[in-house]
Structures are given as C-alpha cells and as structure tokens.
Specification:
about 300 residues; 3 domains; six-stranded antiparallel beta sheet; 6 helices; single chain; five-stranded antiparallel beta sheet; alpha+beta
Length: about 300
C-alpha cells in the first residue's frame, strides 16, 4: 500500500480533524511505522530484516562502511571471496585441433592485462562453474571479442556460456564462503593471523575472515583477507520516514489495518505520543500481536485434530 492509498482510505473518516489538531497523516503514519519497527526488533521478528547487505573489503584490508540505514544483524553475515579479473560471455567459435577460442565477453570485472586464465563453464556469472581449461594468452580484461589459445580437444560449442577469470579462480568460482562470528566490544581480541590459522579459525589457503566487529557505522573483520571479499547477509534496516504520497508502507499489507485505524485515532484525537495513549496501544497490540504471534508459534503435529483443541 502506498501513502496515497492510505490517505484516500482515512480522509473520509477524518473530516477536518487534521485542521483541528495539527497532526498530519504523514506524521501519524511515520509514528506508527516507527513503533512497529521498534517492536519488531524487540521481538526479534523475521519481518524486520528488510536490508540486504553487500559491502566489499579489499585484499589485505580489514574494514568497510555499513549502509546508512543499518541498525543490526538478525543473524550472522558471511564473507564471500570476490575475484576482480573475470569476463563472462559466450563462445563464438572454437577449433578443437588448434585450440583457438574466439569469445564474446558481455560482462566483466577489472581492467588488468593478464596472461594466465582459467576457462570455466557456467550458466550465469556467480553460479557454480566447472573449470574446463586454461590459457596463457595475453589479454586485457574487458568486453567485446577476445581470442585465446587453450587446450585442444575440449568440448566447447558456439553459444556456450563461459567465465574466463584470473588463474587464482577456484574450482566452482563462487569462492570461499564462511559465516562470520561476532566479536563484541567487551571482547577485544588482538591475536595475529598465525594464531587464527593455528586454531583453524580461518581458511589457511584463502585467508577468509572468521570474525567481525561493528563499531559505529563500520564493520571490521579478522584476520585480514588476502583477496577481495564481499560481506553479505540480511540486516535490520531503519525505515524511511513516510513523507510523500509515493512512499510505500512496509511489510506488504500485514499491518495495513493498524495504519488505517491508527492514523484516524492519532489525527482525530490529537495524540502526540502514541506510546503513552492507552487506547491507541490497545489497538496496536491487537493488530501487531495478531501477526507476530502467528509467525512465532506453530501448532504441534496433528494439533488441529487433537481433542484438547476442542475442549
């Protein structure tokens, strides 16, 4: 539901109440959104994880800035190795006797000139890739037609999708992934990389981080990665204030009735602090708990037919 829809729903029920009390529909809706948001965090609800995190930490770096609307993680994030020098596209032609591969690169990352490549077959970039050959042809990473000399006798056909990446690309090309464990401010660990490796807390071949710590709006990882990585996961995002008719109300209709009735009550009665109003909070808990409790508890096996549910 958009704010414009909410306005059209509540205006017939408000009359001139907005003029009398000076509380706009936008302010009332934003207050309700804020109250829902705070209670979702307090109840550790899955509905609060509306942000999708993907921040990059460069090789031998150790921190990255978090999004401006970041509040907290509802679950552990993970790190994923990111290889910069790659090209993805389709086979134009391949001569299985000479090993000459003509390749149309339609997507790429990086711009280096390299002479060591891994040829991988995959559906789309980032999906599971099977290494099928190698090349030592000097080429510049980029889009367009590229020619490589690879092994002879490979099964490569015109139109086949390939990923051609730097020689350190792993089998599978998705790179190493690892769940990150939180390290809190009252647990400041200054151990070096050798300590982490000795206790198996990092992948010794890739230097994939094992822990993270958040200070302010920055996420720090330990130990330092030896390749570029992405830190990915869901996060609890601060909702944007509802200030325009085109703004969409969150949670896909689950609390729309709370917004409708709540806005009318706040504006009509001039409620400046909804949390302090007993009548409003009775409405809030009725609509909020109806959704949250149903998502938090399931009936036990065969619960609908047990005799106790009918007594």
């Amino acid at each position: 539901m958009l704010m414009s829809d909410l306005i059209m729903d509540v205006l017939p029920r408000l009359g001139n109440a907005e003029k009398l009390h000076g509380i706009s529909i936008y302010r009332a809706a934003t207050s309700i959104q804020s109250l829902i948001h705070k209670n979702l965090i307090d109840r550790k609800s899955d509905l609060i994880a509306t942000g999708v995190l993907s921040v990059q930490v460069p090789a031998f770096g150790y921190y990255a800035n978090l999004p401006a609307d970041f509040i907290s993680f509802p679950a552990r994030p993970y790190s994923e190795e990111l290889f910069i020098n790659w090209m993805a596209g389709t086979v134009i032609s391949y001569d299985d006797e000479t090993g000459v591969l003509v390749f149309n690169a339609t997507a790429c990352s990086g711009s280096d000139v390299l002479a060591a490549w891994v040829i991988s077959s995959a559906g789309v970039p980032g999906t599971y890739a099977e290494n099928v050959g190698t090349s030592t042809t000097s080429n510049t990473v980029g889009t367009g037609t590229k020619t490589f000399t690879v092994e002879t006798g490979l099964t490569l056909v015109a139109g086949q999708y390939l990923i051609i990446s730097a020689e350190n690309a792993p089998e599978g090309w998705q790179g190493q992934k690892r769940k990150l464990e939180p390290s809190y401010l009252n647990c400041d660990d200054e151990k070096d990389v050798l300590w982490w490796e000795a206790y198996g807390l990092t992948d010794q071949d890739s230097g994939t981080p094992a822990r993270y710590q958040i200070i302010g709006d920055v996420i720090y990882v330990r130990p330092k990665p030896i390749v570029d990585i992405l830190i990915k996961g869901k996060y609890n995002a601060q909702p944007t204030a509802l200030t325009a008719s085109t703004h969409e109300i969150l949670w896909k209709g689950k609390f729309d009735e709370l917004f409708r009735e709540g806005v009318v009550m706040i504006v009509a009665q001039g409620i400046s602090i909804p949390e302090a109003n007993q009548g409003f909070m009775a409405l809030f808990h009725r609509e909020f708990n109806y959704v949250i409790n149903s998502r938090a508890a399931l009936l036990e096996k065969n619960g609908r037919t047990q005799r106790s549910h009918f007594l």
